[in-house]
Design a protein that fits this description.
four-stranded antiparallel sheet, alpha+beta, Carbohydrate-binding domain-containing protein, single chain, 13-stranded mixed sheet, signal, 400 residues, Immunoglobulin-like, 29% strand, 3 domains, globular
């Protein structure tokens, strides 16, 4: 009804301005502008507000990279645009002076084919900061000392069974499988802590990596340096060992992903998509120094060679239709966790609302079934249904 009112008002004002005396035309023009603004205004639904929380997204075009040799000047990489430069891990909450300067920029790009997801990264090191690379043995804890590039991958977006790759400027790699985030009682499966055949061993066989120092040198701080990383992640290994099967890469499918650059024994954390999540205590979204929050990671969308989806639309315009439900489920998880830390038990939904521990959920239908050993919550936003439990296992139940 309001739409028709303002449309009628605008028509009347426009007609009046055409026949009115000259002295009335300026105020009538202002009134017309006000009517046009009112007509264009739309109430911000909860789903719209949640889309504002949408993380970074990269559209990976189809293309095969060969060989994997650290040379990012190969013709095939020209198909792929560079990402925006990395920012401090806390995003808007980053303390003053922690954001990387242009001389310390980090960027990534991606391509894919039927077997691999290809990742390229370039990292600048300003004069006075050393490019550190000490670890030479596979599956060493690289971030403890070295300049470190990291890839985090959760194809199913379930927050369990996700993968992490760390690599230094000597092409030393450490591959980890996390059964769930550390803060949910999760742990590492890797060749660092176990031998092949032991329960906590995990490693990859088809992964390809290469690095190249393109400016300066390792271990020499007085001059600027730059190093490049080139990685091929085999889909079969990326999709393995998770409680839910992620989508096979095809035009229009997507995975959750993030990247991190760590310097100075972890005192510097620069990332592609900042780690910002709901804080029940502060009742706002807060940046965290923690890469192991998979619900905050970004998206890689698989597109054709031109960056298009099957319907001809641009991959840049794609958004995960399940994100509003996923986002609400993640906020509910953080509220339940904070409640239990404060009280020693799991909450009922009305207790979270009474304590104002949740963001606005007016467009979501929420069910919370608590048990002595945990809970299962189900969220519906529009035609999307998502379930999350006390261990952060997130499942998409249905979609429109």
């Amino acid at each position: 009804m309001a739409k028709w009112f303002w449309a009628g008002a605008l028509s009347i004002v426009v007609v009046a301005s055409l026949v009115a005396p000259t002295r009335w035309r300026t105020p009538l023009a202002a009134l017309a502008a006000a009517c046009a603004l009112a007509l264009a205004w739309r109430p911000r639904t909860k789903a719209a507000v949640q889309q504002e929380r949408y993380p970074k997204q990269y559209v990976a075009r189809r293309g095969t990279v060969a060989p994997i040799d650290g040379d990012l000047e190969k013709a095939v990489w020209r198909l792929a645009p560079w990402s925006e430069p990395f920012s401090e891990i806390r995003g808007p909450d980053a303390p003053k002076g922690t954001q990387p300067r242009p001389e310390e920029a980090t960027r990534v790009k991606m391509l894919w084919d039927d077997e691999y997801l290809y990742i390229a990264a370039v990292m600048d090191v300003d004069a006075g900061n050393e490019l550190v690379a000490l670890f030479k043995e596979r599956n060493s804890p690289i971030f403890h000392t070295d300049s470190d590039f990291e890839v985090f991958l959760d194809p199913a977006g379930c927050c369990h069974g996700y993968k992490e790759l760390e690599i230094n400027a000597l092409n030393t790699v450490w591959n980890l499988l996390l059964d769930r985030p550390y803060s949910d009682g999760g742990g590492e499966y890797s060749g660092r802590i176990a031998q092949k055949g032991e329960p906590r061993w995990w490693d990859v066989e088809k992964q390809k990596t290469a690095v190249k120092v393109t400016k300066g040198q390792i271990g020499f701080a007085p001059s600027k340096a730059q190093w490049c990383v080139e990685v091929a992640l085999r889909h079969s290994e990326s999709l393995s060992q998770a409680p839910q099967r992620g989508a096979e890469p095809s035009v229009g499918s997507f995975w959750r992903i993030n990247f991190s650059r760590v310097e100075k024994q972890g005192n510097v954390n620069w990332v592609w998509s900042p780690q910002v999540v709901w804080s029940p205590a502060e009742r706002r979204y807060v940046g965290q120094v923690n890469m192991h929050l998979p619900d905050a990671w970004g998206y890689v969308v698989f597109a054709d060679e031109a960056g298009k989806l099957h319907d001809g639309s641009s991959g840049e315009d794609f958004r995960d239709p399940g994100f509003p439900a996923r986002h609400t489920a993640a906020c509910l998880y953080y509220a339940c966790r904070a409640f239990r830390e404060a009280t020693g038990r799991f909450p009922a939904l009305q207790e979270l609302r009474a304590r104002q521990m949740l963001p606005d959920l007016r467009d979501a239908t929420v069910q919370l079934r608590s048990r002595t050993d945990g809970y299962v919550a189900e969220v519906r936003v529009g035609g999307q249904r998502v379930q999350v439990n006390h261990l952060r296992l997130m499942s998409v139940l249905s979609s429109a």
